Amino acid sequence: MSEQLTLYLYKNSPYCEKIELALAEANVPYKAYQIDIWNKPEWFATNVNPVSGKVPVVTYGGPNVDPDDPSPLSAKVAESNVILEFLADVYPDSGLLPKDPVLRAKVRFFVNAATKHLEEPCYAFVQWREPYDNALKGIEFIQGLLEEDGDFAVGDHYTIADASISPLLARLKIVIETDIGKFPVGMGYKLGEELKGPKYAKFMKYVQRILERPSLKKTHDEESAIAFFKTIFTERAQ
Amino acid sequence: MSEQLTLYLHKASPYSEKIELALAEANAPHKACQIDLLNKPEWFADKVNSVGKVPVVTYGGPNVDPDDPSPLSVKIAGIEYSGLLPKDPVLRAKVRFFVNAVTKHIEEPCTAFVQGREPYDNALKGIEFIQRLLEEGRDFAVGDHYTIADACISPLLARLKIVTETDLGRASVRSFSR
């Protein structure tokens, strides 16, 4: 596969990080271009993502041009979970999706569950739209799906299931270790204490292993993420 | 493909309908078993789907009656049962984007409107968003063949038609069909 691939991303976006992780684990060469989402270049919405103007977006194929001069001949793919599936399609030997249909269904169910049961309640808690009860329930649900004693969410290889949940887990770690968020002071630490219990041991073991992966250490800039959180969570609830 | 396939469904559920449509368009032989969601048989949660929801598909294993499911079949739950996708990766991405957009921009606001939780403005915005994704003069949402994009939006459109023609729903102001 010698088609060009360019990823347009914003460095603090967990959705963009999903794609970076998948590309790193699949060992795919690609060009990366940072988009300042607070100050987007005009050509981005017109020539790269006219549908929603958001990142992440990948361009695939077409001539080998500079990222800031995208060609109309390349295919444009948006939406993080759609991009993950696309990568699995164009790099079928990467292992990003298993070959077996039943295992593929397990991977997709996991991605769907991570979005529905974990992403939403976790972000809702950090933005203090609700307490962390639903996040804990979501963690239990995800825990039930994990392989026993496995390094990966599904099967014995890194898949888009791992890529899709990792950025969230990296940010969950920040929240419970630094207490940064819109919720009342101390509630992040409290969540961390709850997660130390035996009830969540399997989940936390998976979190630890997935956060130790070289691809994540290379992609995830924790200091930058912490600094970013501090700028958006300036108010604390009482 | 000579593996048995059984679909457990509820006849009024749009999620079950997506799967029925996909199986019908794919001409896939299968057994169907209606589950009364208000009076679920005990074996359903024990042997088919511990979460107790429909739709669920059992695949493979011995050819048994639907109400006597075998532990040897694989149980597949979750909203998207794939099988109707183009071969080309870029077209596949278009189909998946469409499915994602339907859930995010249409399903939620339409459900919220019918349940009286919000006015139909977001539903209209969602319809505009989906309209921009549709191809001019084509029979299908993406490409020139029925895909899971069409299957996933059809039950919603059928119910939208009912709402606009009969005014059923919890919206507190009488609305005229647009």
Tell me about this structure.
The complex is a heterodimer of chains A (238) and B (178). Chain A has ten helices and four strands. By secondary structure, chain A is α+β, with helices and mostly antiparallel strands. Chain A has a four-stranded mixed sheet with strand order 2-1-3-4, covered by helices on one side. In chain A, α1 links the parallel β1 and β2. Chain A starts with a strand and ends in a 6-residue tail after the last helix. Chain B has five helices and four strands, in the order βαβαββααα. A four-stranded mixed sheet of chain B has the order 2-1-3-4, covered by helices on one side. The radius of gyration of chain B is 18 Å and the shape is globular. Chains A and B meet through β4, α3 and α4 of A and α3 of B.
Largest sheet entry of chain B: 4 strands, mixed
Terminal Cα separation of chain A, in Å? 55 Å
User: Given the helix and strand composition of chain A, which structural class is it?
Assistant: alpha+beta
Question: Topology as H/E string of chain A?
Answer: EHEHEEHHHHHHHH
Unreliable runs of chain A, pLDDT <50, ≥5 residues? none
